[in-house]
């Protein structure tokens, strides 16, 4: 389509492009001051400031007009508009998940693929504009005009700069049109302006100046293009060459992520300083362009340097001096921020650190360490000053049956101001580079001994870093996990390098996997770390007056003191040693549900999906409560945080939820093809309130599956119940596709029982898909009864923690004999089906019913972890189904009219089915309940033969 417009554009405006016309116009403009046709009349030209100004003005108008009337430019503009629209149209819905066209989402999708387009445009036009006269062979005439160099130079540069400006303006119009077209009227014009013109355009201007200067100096159009391309290649590979400092790369350093909650706040100072630095650099380049501006016949480089020297007037000299000072001064300030206030790391620094750390301290892994039993802390946030102070007391206990004489801890000096063990100890080792401390205890800590650790510390955003900005505390919407503040003990493998090739580079053996699910030692430590089992938790938080601060637990007291707001939270049950501290300017939606206070703390503008989320909380509490036992808390709170991270995470009765997922989703309740993402994510997070917040696995294989997988099962199961078959079908297909995509990229797929937790495609997607399908075949009541039994047996159990083996055996207890194979297939093997509809012929009977002859093919294969397949014996319960067609709102819609579970033992099976409604499609596994790499062939269109009754 774009090409079509380009073609039309080129044809249509071709006439206007002939050199003659442009020349004539140029001639007219140029004669304003110096009318050549009156040359015989005595005439004294006046050259003063006003002459220069009007010369400049007319030249700018001329250049801009010439650039924009260029037929190519119009073609490009049309192409761009079509490109933008098609881009948005194509990316509107990913896997049936739609996001509202809020302004930042529009900007993201529109600018994302547009940048390259702009770069090519600028490179192309820098040559085009500079070489215009020369290509028209009009340069000698133009150069003879009595105008100073800077007039043609600057007017051409301005025309070049305006090109990306216009493109961005068009992009903004397209964005506004798309928003309007979607019926979305919450336009953020200020955001369009900030992002497109303050951030993007200024970036493109820098590029324009660079491309322009290169063209001026090298004096060869194609060489000029080539040099700019080299500059991009340098940008792409500079990290590999060891140049990762932003000061080296022209135009870099001013990326900024927008969040509705927090605007661009964290990045403002960084962006301004970098813009000043590179802006000053660009002005210097422009001076260079002016000095080397080609005028008259081309001289060699020596002649041009000589010319440039002559051209340095006092005003140019002062200009160069001032902007050099600005350039060096702002560069110095940036260096102060990136290398002095903050640490600067060359590429691969962290990789090497991780390898060194592992080599030095892995030997201490698994040494008995005391466990935390209670956490009492205070976190004082100062959002305006982007800093926080924290302090806390741990109660620790030696839960092992051996004495402990050394505590190991990954720690650097800046982390804590205070770090006092409540018993005699001595710091006997400290590696300040890698951050490792060893405390010796004399007398040693005896089994059962309890003691305390008091700690305090401070964090503050210090200026900006080379690679970004510290987002630990933000102006609005801080979300901190306790693990990034509070002390932890022993060697933590989480820091180890995971990629095989990278590990090899540092002579590290392949990373040791988690122990098997029934490993005794592994099951002594919790899934979320070996620092603690379940703990008591209490926190006092404070924040600025206009914000609400939150931590897990029930609010005991709220008060104000010295213009600050204080909140005291306490949990009355034991919880994981894993907390979150949140503070933002919130609006609150509160509802009571069976004595439970349901609360959503959200950004005032993000009201789009609140009802769905609230509904999902209620339904989860009711449904999960009826299967897994009552919801154990008196409250549940969803807390929105900025989109610097896009996940939701469950803490007991407290669920931080990114603004990027759930809050700005576009769900059409009447469109079953539309996945109800906010409902699903909320339901998943609610599932975590049982798994693992009541039953958690240990530090072994399969434990993460019990947490994520069972939460995902809970969500799919609730979705099926609330949203019906159509949504379920869509959802199972989504989960299945995600799983199949995931396994295609994993060279070693483990069966569920051996998952470690990083296999997202299994612990989420396969779980959602396969556990639901399993519950459907075994019978949802039986399946849920097994889950209820499992949770009752192991609630808050630790030492040992329950494992997936116990989960599987509980499930087996509830599963009939003829379906036991399904449990083996699901958890212990990687099972795939190759199901296919072969033929479907129907005839209408005289009583208005239909008889359908359906022939299907089924095949089951087992895949080993390397993907080698073996055919399995088929004696399985599968499902066949028939869809009919119905008119709904003037559109044809497929609706299931028949589904039946069937026991299949042969590869080809035939069924004769009598139906009340006219069949449209029929086949095997119509709801995508079985793992099948090609699910498109599951259904086939029903063909109607001339029926027997008619004969
Ligand atoms: Zn989860």
Description:
This protein is of the alpha+beta class. The protein has 4 domains: 2-244, no CATH class; 367-490 and 529-687, Sandwich (Immunoglobulin-like), CATH 2.60.40; 703-828, Neutral Protease, domain 2 (Orthogonal Bundle); 833-950, Sandwich (Immunoglobulin-like). The chain is 41% helix and 22% strand. It is built from 23 helices and 30 strands. It has a 7-stranded mixed sheet with strand order 6-9-4-3-11-14-13, with no helix packed on it. It has a 4-stranded mixed sheet with strand order 16-17-18-19, with helices on one face. The protein is globular and about 110 Å long. It starts with a helix and ends in a 7-residue tail after the last strand. Residues 684, 688, 708, 711 line the site of zinc ion (ZN).
Which labels suit this protein?
single chain; 951 residues; alpha+beta; Immunoglobulin-like; Neutral Protease, domain 2; 7-stranded mixed β-sheet; 4-stranded mixed β-sheet; 22% strand; binds zinc ion
Q: What's the CATH topology label of the largest domain?
A: Immunoglobulin-like
Total number of β-strand segments? 30
Order of strands across the widest beta sheet? 6-9-4-3-11-14-13
Total domain modules: 4
Helix content: 40-55%
The N- to C-terminal Cα distance equals 54 Å
Mean pLDDT: 87
Q: How would you describe the shape?
A: globular
* Name of the CATH superfamily of the largest domain: tricorn interacting facor f3 domain
Q: Determine the structural class based on helices, strands and strand pairing.
A: alpha+beta
- Helical stretch tally: 23
Which CATH class of the largest domain is shown?
A: Mainly Beta
What characterizes the major β-sheet?
7 strands, mixed
Radius of gyration from CA coordinates? 35 Å
Q: Give the bound compounds.
A: zinc ion
| Spans where pLDDT lies below 50 across 5 or more residues | 1-39, 947-951
**Which percent band covers the strand fraction?**
15-25%
């Amino acid at each position: 389509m774009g090409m079509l417009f380009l073609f039309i554009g080129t044809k249509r405006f071709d006439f206007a492009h002939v050199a003659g016309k442009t020349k004539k116009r140029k001639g007219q403009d140029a004669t304003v001051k110096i009318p050549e046709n009156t040359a015989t009349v005595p005439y004294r030209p006046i050259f003063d400031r006003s002459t220069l100004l009007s010369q400049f003005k007319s030249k700018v108008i001329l250049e801009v007009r010439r650039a924009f009337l260029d037929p190519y430019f119009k073609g490009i503009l049309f192409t761009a508009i079509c490109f933008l629209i098609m881009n948005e149209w194509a990316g509107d819905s990913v896997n049936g998940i739609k996001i509202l066209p809020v302004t930042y989402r529009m900007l993201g999708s529109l600018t994302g693929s547009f940048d390259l387009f702009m770069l090519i445009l600028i490179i192309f036009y820098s040559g085009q504009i500079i070489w215009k006269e020369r290509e028209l062979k009009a340069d000698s005439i133009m150069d003879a005009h009595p105008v100073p160099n800077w007039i043609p130079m600057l007017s051409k540069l301005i025309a070049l700069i305006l090109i990306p400006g216009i493109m961005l303006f068009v992009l903004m119009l397209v964005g506004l049109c798309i928003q309007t077209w979607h019926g979305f009227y919450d336009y953020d014009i200020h955001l369009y302006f900030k992002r497109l013109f303050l951030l993007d355009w200024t970036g493109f201007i820098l590029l324009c100046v660079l491309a322009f200067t290169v063209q001026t100096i090298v004096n060869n159009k194609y060489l000029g293009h080539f040099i700019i391309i080299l500059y991009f290649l340098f940008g792409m590979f500079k990290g590999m060459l060891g140049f990762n400092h932003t000061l080296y790369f022209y135009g870099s350093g001013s990326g900024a992520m927008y969040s509705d909650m927090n605007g661009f706040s964290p990045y403002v100072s960084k962006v301004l300083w970098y813009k000043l630095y590179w802006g000053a650099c660009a002005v210097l380049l422009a001076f260079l362009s002016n000095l080397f501006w080609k005028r008259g016949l081309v001289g060699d480089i020596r002649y041009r340097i000589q010319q440039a020297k002559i051209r340095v007037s006092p005003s140019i000299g002062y200009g160069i001096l001032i902007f050099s000072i600005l350039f060096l001064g702002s560069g110095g300030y940036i260096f102060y921020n990136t290398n002095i206030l903050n640490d600067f790391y060359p590429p691969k620094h962290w990789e090497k650190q991780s390898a060194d750390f592992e080599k030095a301290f892995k030997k201490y892994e698994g040494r008995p360490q005391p466990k935390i039993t209670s956490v009492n802390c205070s976190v004082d946030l100062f959002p305006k000053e982007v800093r926080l102070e924290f302090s806390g007391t741990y109660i620790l206990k030696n839960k092992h049956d051996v004495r402990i004489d050394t505590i190991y801890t990954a720690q650097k000096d800046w982390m804590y101001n205070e770090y006092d063990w409540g018993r005699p100890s001595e710091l006997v080792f400290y590696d300040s580079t890698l951050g490792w401390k060893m405390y010796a205890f004399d007398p040693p800590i005896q089994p059962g001994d309890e003691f305390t650790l008091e700690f305090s510390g401070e964090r503050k955003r210090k200026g900006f870093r080379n690679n970004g900005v510290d987002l630990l505390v933000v102006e609005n919407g801080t979300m901190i996990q306790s693990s990034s503040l509070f002390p932890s003990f022993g060697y933590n493998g989480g820091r180890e390098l995971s990629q095989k090739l990278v590990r090899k580079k540092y002579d590290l053996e392949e990373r040791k996997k988690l122990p098997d699910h029934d490993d005794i030692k592994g099951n002594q430590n919790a899934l979320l770390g070996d620092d603690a089992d379940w703990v008591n938790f209490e926190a006092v938080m404070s924040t600025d007056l206009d914000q609400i601060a939150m931590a897990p637990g029930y609010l005991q007291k709220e008060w104000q003191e010295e213009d600050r707001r204080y909140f005291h939270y306490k949990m009355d049950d034991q919880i994981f040693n894993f907390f979150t501290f949140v503070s933002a300017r919130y609006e609150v939606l509160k509802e009571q549900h069976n004595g439970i206070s349901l609360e959503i703390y959200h950004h005032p503008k993000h009201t789009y999906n609140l009802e769905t989320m609230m509904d999902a909380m209620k339904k989860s509490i009711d449904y999960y409560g009826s299967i897994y036992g009552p919801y154990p808390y008196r409250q549940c709170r969803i807390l929105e945080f900025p989109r610097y991270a896009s996940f939701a995470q469950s803490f007991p009765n407290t669920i931080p939820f990114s603004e990027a997922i759930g809050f700005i989703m576009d769900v059409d309740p009447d469109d079953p093809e539309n996945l109800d993402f906010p409902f699903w994510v909320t339901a998943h997070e609610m599932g975590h309130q049982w798994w693992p917040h009541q039953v958690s696995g240990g530090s072994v294989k399969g434990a993460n599956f019990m947490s994520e997988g069972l939460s995902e099962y809970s969500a799919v199961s609730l979705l099926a119940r609330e949203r019906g078959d159509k949504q379920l079908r869509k959802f199972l297909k989504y989960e299945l596709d995600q799983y199949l995509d995931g396994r295609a990229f994993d060279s070693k797929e483990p069966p569920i029982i051996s998952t470690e937790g990083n296999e997202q495609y299994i612990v989420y997607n396969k779980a959602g898909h396969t556990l639901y399908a399993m519950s459907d075949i075994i019978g949802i009541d039986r399946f849920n009864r097994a889950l209820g039994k499992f949770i009752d047996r192991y609630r808050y159990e630790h030492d040992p923690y329950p494992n997936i083996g116990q989960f599987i055996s509980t499930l087996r207890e509830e599963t009939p004999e003829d379906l036991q194979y399904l449990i083996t297939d699901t958890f212990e093997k990687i099972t795939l089906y190759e199901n296919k509809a072969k033929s479907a012929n129907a005839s209408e009977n005289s009583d208005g019913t239909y008889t359908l002859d359906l022939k299907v093919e089924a095949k089951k294969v087992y895949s080993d972890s390397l993907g080698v397949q073996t055919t399995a014996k088929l004696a399985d319960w599968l499902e066949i189904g028939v869809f009919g067609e119905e008119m709904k709102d003037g559109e044809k819609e497929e609706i299931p009219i028949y589904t039946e579970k069937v026991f299949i033992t042969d590869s080809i099976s035939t069924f004769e089915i009598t139906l009340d409604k006219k069949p449209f499609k029929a086949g095997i596994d119509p709801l995508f309940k079985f793992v099948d790499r090609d699910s498109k062939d599951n259904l086939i269109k029903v063909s109607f033969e001339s029926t027997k009754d008619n004969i």
